[in-house]
Amino acid sequence: MKLVLAIVSSEDAQSVIRSMTQAGFSITKLATTGGFLMSGNVTIITGVDDDRVNEAIDIIRDKSKSRSQPMPSITNSAIGGFINAPLVEVTVGGATVFVLPIDQFIKI
Question: CA 16 to CA 14: how far, in whole Å?
Answer without folding.
Answer: 5
